[in-house]
Specification:
Blueprint lengths: L4 E4 L2 E4 L5 E3 L9 E4 L12 H6 L4 E4 L10 E3 L3 H12 L8 E6 L4 H14 L4 E4 L3 E3 L4 E3 L7 H13 L4 E5 L2 H5 L10 E4 L7 H4 L2 H9 L11 E5 L5 H5 L6 E5 L5 E8 L4 E7 L2 E7 L4 H16 L4 H7 L11 E3 L6 E5 L4 H13 L5 E5 L9 H12 L2 E4 L9 H15 L4 E4 L3 H11 L5 E5 L6 E4 L2 E4 L2 H8 L16
Parallel strand pairs: 3-4, 4-5, 5-6, 7-11, 7-12, 8-11, 12-13, 13-14, 14-15, 19-23, 20-21, 20-23, 21-22
Antiparallel strand pairs: 1-2, 8-9, 9-10, 15-16, 16-17, 18-19, 24-25
Helix pairs in contact: 2-4, 3-9, 3-10, 11-12, 12-13, 14-15
Length: about 500
């Protein structure tokens, strides 16, 4: 007897025999629905037979497909259908959590980590989904995507509910929004960090990119706590226009929550956070003004959620290091090495300015650009590198399906436009580039390695090669211990 599955005006009707949903045929198990998604590299419709062989009891897709041996449902959008089916099968877990979505170009991961830490410090159990790690309250797993595909995301939220978690903090990428991965996730609070140029290879224009980011604020529960938005961000007003509920803004120049830097050293800041509802001051043991913004976002979110701000004040000095974000390695009589995720022109500017304040010698910048991503930002990043660093070592990031030397040449155009003498070396082996820079830098210099942060693999024409920047930096300095956060990943 065929498994019953069909879509009605009120939603999906599923046979009790359906026990799961997958968009990758290799993940199909008996009783699953396979959703075939047209992709950039491969079309899921070409794997229907494989999914059925693995036990799929029904298939959903966008193409007109004949001769499928199990029920087949044609839909306008496979990705939307996957999100709807996953939410239904996992029984809408976001409705059982206080769910917070955090988006923006830069700072998302840090705000996710720090808000989760503040919630836990205030006495509540909190899970998180981020580009570094996924924590369901019981176990911590390395992340594959910033925002998981909808079946994985709904499963992780259900696991949070099952482990007794009350709050779930989700890092939401623009790809995750555009590809409907967070459809059917109802939010209690939405947070915007900032918007700068990124992913225009995917979104086409800045207007499309901004609109995609703004769509996060269309997913609010009717009983939501509202939105938290960076008032100092140039595009904040366009986002504010999309918010239907209450808003708490934050910033250093303006905002409901004002972050005043009382004192600042190269490695930390003392910050006063002021709002008509609270006035707290605490040391922030993380470098850079951009981290003051990240902390302000987390504080404003904690306030919006109703937490005791005295507990929040006590927790700020203990906010955890985020793997791959300004991760510092030091050995006596050797240069300081810093690994950072900065991979946009704005992110690189902030990273280099921060490092400049903590370095008495030269800054050696080791970086490249991601293949298959926004090509237009490559010369811009070259210009930033030549303007704000002393010596540039060009290397590979993850070339994907592009030739590494062609990516380097695009960055080189920007370097030459500012100061060609800043280029120290083009070394496309990232490991060799890091080692070379560390071996040439003096003890008062800093070697800043940017672009990949905590990522574990590089990708070359479909081939995956394990390479951890932090581990390479550690080895170049002769350190024997693994870097803090390399296995880490949790903040409980």
């Amino acid at each position: 007897m065929a498994t019953e599955i069909h879509k009605t005006a009120s939603g999906w009707m599923l046979d009790p025999a359906v026990v799961g949903v997958a968009i990758d045929s290799r993940q199909v198990k008996p009783g699953y629905v396979f959703v075939a998604i047209p992709g950039l590299m491969a079309d899921g419709h070409g794997f229907i037979e494989d999914a059925v062989d693995r036990g799929a009891v029904a298939v959903v897709g966008e193409r007109h497909i004949m001769n499928v041996s199990v029920p087949y449902v044609k839909v306008p959008s496979s990705r939307r259908a996957a999100a709807e089916l996953a939410a239904l099968l996992y029984d809408y877990p976001s409705l059982e959590l206080t769910t917070i979505g955090i988006t923006g170009t830069n700072g998302k991961t840090s705000v996710v980590y720090w808000l989760a830490a503040l919630i836990r410090a205030a006495g509540s159990r909190c899970g998180m989904v981020s580009s570094v790690a996924n924590d369901n309250g019981r176990t911590i797993h390395e992340s594959v995507l910033t925002t998981p595909e909808s079946p994985d995301l709904q499963r992780q939220l259900r696991e949070m509910v099952q482990t007794g978690v009350s709050y779930g903090v989700i890092e939401v990428s623009s790809h995750g929004l555009a590809q409907h991965r967070v459809d059917e996730v109802a939010l209690d609070l939405a947070v915007l960090t900032n918007i700068t140029r990124e992913h225009l290879d995917f979104h086409g224009t800045m207007d499309n990119y901004i609109d995609t980011k703004a769509s996060l604020f269309d997913r609010m529960k009717t009983t939501s706590f509202g939105a938290v938005i960076n008032a100092d961000d140039y595009f904040s007003q366009r986002i504010l226009e999309r918010v239907k509920g209450s808003v708490v803004t934050y910033g250093i120049k303006k905002g409901d929550v004002l972050a005043e830097i009382v004192a600042q050293t190269p490695w930390s800041s003392k910050v006063r956070f002021r709002h008509p509802g609270f006035d707290i001051t605490a040391p922030l043991n993380h470098p850079g003004t951009y981290n003051v913004y990240n902390a302000a976002a987390a504080v404003a979110a904690a306030f919006s959620l109703g937490f005791d701000m005295r507990l929040i004040e006590a927790a700020i000095p203990h906010l955890p290091e985020v793997p791959g974000r300004m991760q510092v390695f030091q050995v006596p009589s050797r240069p300081t090495v810093i690994v950072d995720y900065a991979h946009t022109p704005d992110g690189l500017i902030q990273s280099l300015k921060t490092v400049r304040r903590m370095t008495s010698g030269k800054i050696w910048l080791v970086f490249g650009a991601r293949g298959g991503r926004d090509r237009g930002k490559r010369p811009e990043m070259g210009e930033v590198a030549a303007r704000l660093s002393d010596r540039v070592v060009l290397t590979s990031d993850s070339p994907n399906d592009e030739a590494p030397h062609e990516i380097a040449q695009a960055i080189l155009e920007g370097i030459r436009a500012v100061d060609a003498s800043k280029l120290a070396l083009i070394e496309l082996s990232r490991e060799a580039a890091i080692q070379w820079a560390v071996s040439r830098a003096d003890q008062n210099d800093c070697v800043l390695v940017t672009g990949r942060g905590p990522e574990l693999f590089q990708y070359f024409y479909g081939r995956r090669v394990r390479l951890e920047d932090a581990k390479v930096a550690q080895e170049a300095l002769g350190l024997s211990e693994r870097p803090k956060g390399a296995d880490g990943i949790g903040i409980r």
